[in-house]
Amino acid sequence: MAYNGVFESKYEIFRELLYRRQRFQEPFEEFEWEILRKYRSLDPNVSQAGIIRKIVSSCLPVMSAALQGFQFQDVNELVEFAKEVTMALHMY
Question: Could you report the per-residue pLDDT of 35-59, keeping only the tens digit for each?
Fold first, then answer.
Protein backbone atom coordinates (compact mmCIF):
# COMPACT_ATOMS: atom_id res chain seq x y z
CA MET A 1 0.00 0.00 0.00
CA ALA A 2 2.84 2.42 0.80
CA TYR A 3 4.37 1.83 -2.62
CA ASN A 4 1.11 2.83 -4.30
CA GLY A 5 1.07 6.08 -2.30
CA VAL A 6 4.63 6.91 -3.36
CA PHE A 7 3.78 6.17 -6.98
CA GLU A 8 0.69 8.39 -6.83
CA SER A 9 2.69 11.17 -5.21
CA LYS A 10 5.38 11.02 -7.89
CA TYR A 11 2.71 10.87 -10.57
CA GLU A 12 1.10 14.02 -9.15
CA ILE A 13 4.43 15.86 -9.15
CA PHE A 14 5.11 14.74 -12.72
CA ARG A 15 1.64 15.89 -13.79
CA GLU A 16 2.17 19.27 -12.11
CA LEU A 17 5.47 19.65 -13.95
CA LEU A 18 3.90 18.70 -17.24
CA TYR A 19 1.27 21.43 -17.03
CA ARG A 20 3.19 24.03 -15.05
CA ARG A 21 3.65 27.42 -16.72
CA GLN A 22 4.99 30.62 -15.25
CA ARG A 23 2.19 32.91 -14.10
CA PHE A 24 2.17 36.50 -15.31
CA GLN A 25 3.13 38.17 -12.01
CA GLU A 26 5.35 35.32 -10.80
CA PRO A 27 9.04 36.19 -10.52
CA PHE A 28 11.18 34.12 -12.87
CA GLU A 29 13.57 33.00 -10.15
CA GLU A 30 10.71 31.75 -7.96
CA PHE A 31 9.28 29.81 -10.89
CA GLU A 32 12.66 28.39 -11.82
CA TRP A 33 13.48 27.13 -8.31
CA GLU A 34 10.05 25.49 -8.01
CA ILE A 35 10.65 23.57 -11.24
CA LEU A 36 14.12 22.54 -10.05
CA ARG A 37 12.80 21.34 -6.65
CA LYS A 38 10.03 19.29 -8.23
CA TYR A 39 12.34 17.63 -10.74
CA ARG A 40 14.83 16.81 -7.98
CA SER A 41 12.05 15.34 -5.82
CA LEU A 42 11.24 12.94 -8.67
CA ASP A 43 14.86 12.10 -9.50
CA PRO A 44 17.82 13.57 -7.59
CA ASN A 45 20.06 12.74 -10.58
CA VAL A 46 17.98 14.48 -13.24
CA SER A 47 20.11 16.27 -15.82
CA GLN A 48 20.55 20.02 -15.72
CA ALA A 49 19.81 20.11 -19.46
CA GLY A 50 16.36 18.58 -18.94
CA ILE A 51 15.49 21.03 -16.19
CA ILE A 52 16.71 23.97 -18.27
CA ARG A 53 14.63 22.86 -21.29
CA LYS A 54 11.51 22.70 -19.11
CA ILE A 55 12.14 26.12 -17.57
CA VAL A 56 12.82 27.82 -20.91
CA SER A 57 9.81 26.24 -22.59
CA SER A 58 7.43 26.99 -19.69
CA CYS A 59 8.34 30.52 -18.69
CA LEU A 60 6.57 33.62 -19.99
CA PRO A 61 6.76 33.89 -23.79
CA VAL A 62 8.88 37.06 -23.82
CA MET A 63 11.44 35.47 -21.48
CA SER A 64 11.35 32.19 -23.37
CA ALA A 65 12.08 34.02 -26.63
CA ALA A 66 15.02 35.82 -25.01
CA LEU A 67 16.47 32.58 -23.62
CA GLN A 68 16.04 30.41 -26.72
CA GLY A 69 19.24 29.54 -28.50
CA PHE A 70 21.56 29.99 -25.53
CA GLN A 71 23.45 27.05 -24.05
CA PHE A 72 23.45 27.16 -20.26
CA GLN A 73 25.80 24.93 -18.28
CA ASP A 74 23.52 24.77 -15.26
CA VAL A 75 20.40 26.26 -13.73
CA ASN A 76 22.36 28.92 -11.84
CA GLU A 77 23.79 30.26 -15.10
CA LEU A 78 20.26 30.38 -16.52
CA VAL A 79 19.04 32.34 -13.48
CA GLU A 80 21.86 34.88 -13.74
CA PHE A 81 21.23 35.43 -17.45
CA ALA A 82 17.47 35.70 -16.85
CA LYS A 83 18.11 38.43 -14.27
CA GLU A 84 19.93 40.45 -16.92
CA VAL A 85 17.11 39.88 -19.40
CA THR A 86 14.52 40.94 -16.82
CA MET A 87 16.44 44.14 -16.09
CA ALA A 88 16.72 44.89 -19.80
CA LEU A 89 13.00 44.31 -20.33
CA HIS A 90 12.10 46.64 -17.48
CA MET A 91 14.10 49.43 -19.11
CA TYR A 92 11.59 49.57 -21.99
Answer: 999 999 999 999 999 999 999 999 9
Asked if 66 and 44 touch (Cβ cutoff 8 Å), the reply is no
The CA-based angle 48-54-14, given to 5 degrees, is 95
Q: Are the C-beta atoms of 22 and 31 separated by less than 8 Å?
A: yes
Alpha carbon of residue 1 to chain centroid: 32
Range with the lowest mean pLDDT among 5-9, 29-33, 39-43, 69-73? Answer: 5-9
Q: Contact at 8 Å (CB) between 40 and 46? A: yes
Selection from 48, 42, 39 nearest residue 9 by Cα: 42
- Per the structure, the count of domains in the chain is 1
In this prediction, residue 66 carries a pLDDT of 94
Prediction pTM value: 0.84
The whole domain housing 85 covers 2-90
